[in-house]
Amino acid sequence: MLAYTYKSDGNFELTQKPKPQIIDPQDAIIRVTMSSICTSDLHIKHGSVPKAVQGITVGHEMVGIVEEIGADVKNVKVGDRVTVNVETFCGECFFCKNGFVNNCSDKNGGWALGCRIDGGQAEYVRVPYANQGLNKIPDSVSDEQALFVGDILATGFWAARISEIKQNDTVLIIGAGPTGICTLLCVMLKNPQKIIVCEKDEVRRNFIKRYYPNVIVTEPESCLDVVNKESEHGGADVVLEVAGTEETFKTAWQAARPNAIVTVVALYDKPMTLPLPDMYGKNLTFKTGGVDGCDCEEILSLIEQGKIDTTPLITHKFPLKDIEKAYEIFENRRENVIKIAITNE
Ligand SMILES: NC(=O)c1ccc[n+]([C@@H]2O[C@H](COP(=O)([O-])OP(=O)(O)OC[C@H]3O[C@@H](n4cnc5c(N)ncnc54)[C@H](O)[C@@H]3O)[C@@H](O)[C@H]2O)c1
Ligand SMILES: [Zn+2]
Ligand SMILES: [Zn+2]
């Protein structure tokens, strides 16, 4: 089968590999019908994911059809259309039982697919702990609608969940990349009084204005002024930082009102400093972390009810054989790309 493979630093290549097989009773083999490219794939390509293993098939956002299941897989059956979770988790350990599945203590726990074990930019993928890692897609939900459920939409949902948003709140989201937009969609479900999105790129600002006209959009230069003007207590009640730069990390705590919650979704390529003397008296609560991707069933149900729609994010589509071209566009943000669907049919 075709598989897009991490060959060496800076180098991914479309190669031929044998079709994966069940090696554990809790495995399932999925025929991938659609996958996508994530910013984290680019981090692997550029050698900034130390755990990534050379030779693996990349890709951790995908949907497909169950081709084969191990003896202990009960959650799905052959022929089901499913979403695949970015995280592998056992469901049994202390962390899993508390919903902190990102910290599953199993040796395969956490982000393994497309990082430490073969992922989904391929024709087939083996999913370990399939009872936890797969969710059946409702019949009325298309592959396009379900494509981001296991990764960036799970991230947005988790971020909105831990941010304790209340209805009178002014919420600031920094960064309107694919993950920031998914975060916005999930914050919208909480019905806060105002949502402000701060984004540097004009094309992305226009995307937000076009699809979500009730959202207040600002550029970084005017962000603090806009937040001050739009909030009643000298800053945002909740801030979600989904951009990942030194500047946005600073904006995140500066724009927050005293006693606000600041949720850091973004990952950074170096340590950030908290200048505690400057922040004295703000009494902020910071929340950070990797997504706990255990709400996929609920997310699929919200999509089914028409409450979440990520299909406008799919700006491009390519067959797997042309994935090189798709990476070139995604990596260089050409043609106003937001997300690319890679198809196998
Ligand atoms: N915590 C998790 O589990 C998790 C999961 C998925 C993604 N992430 C992280 O979320 C972040 C966003 O991911 P993405 O895929 O959307 O990436 P992205 O790079 O497409 O999005 C970042 C956005 O921030 C914008 N930006 C840059 N500088 C800015 C500034 N000064 N002010 C306002 N906006 C600015 C960029 O223009 C871009 O649109 C990344 O750091 C990613 O690693 C974390
Ligand atoms: Zn990802
Ligand atoms: Zn576990």
Layout of helices and strands:
Layout: E1 2-8, E2 11-16, E3 28-36, H1 39-45, E4 62-69, E5 81-84, E6 87-88, H2 94-97, E7 110-111, E8 124-127, H3 130-133, E9 134-136, H4 143-146, H5 152-162, E10 170-174, H6 178-188, E11 194-198, H7 202-211, E12 216-218, H8 223-230, E13 236-241, H9 246-254, E14 256-264, H10 276-279, E15 285-288, H11 296-304, E16 314-319, H12 323-331, E17 339-343
Explain what this protein looks like in three dimensions:
The structure is a single chain. This protein is of the alpha/beta class and 345 residues long. It folds into 2 domains: 2-151 and 292-343, Quinone Oxidoreductase, Chain A, domain 1; 155-288, Rossmann fold (3-Layer(aba) Sandwich). Helix content is 26%, strand content 26%. It contains 12 helices and 17 strands. It has helices at 39-45, 94-97, 130-133, 143-146, 152-162, 178-188, 202-211, 223-230, 246-254, 276-279, 296-304, 323-331; strands at 2-8, 11-16, 28-36, 62-69, 81-84, 87-88, 110-111, 124-127, 134-136, 170-174, 194-198, 216-218, 236-241, 256-264, 285-288, 314-319, 339-343. The strands form 4 sheets. Strands 3, 4, 5, 8, 9, 16 and 17 form a 7-stranded mixed sheet that branches. It starts with a strand and ends with a strand. One zinc ion binds at residues 89-90, 92-93, 95-96, 104-106, 109. One zinc ion (ZN) binds next to loops.
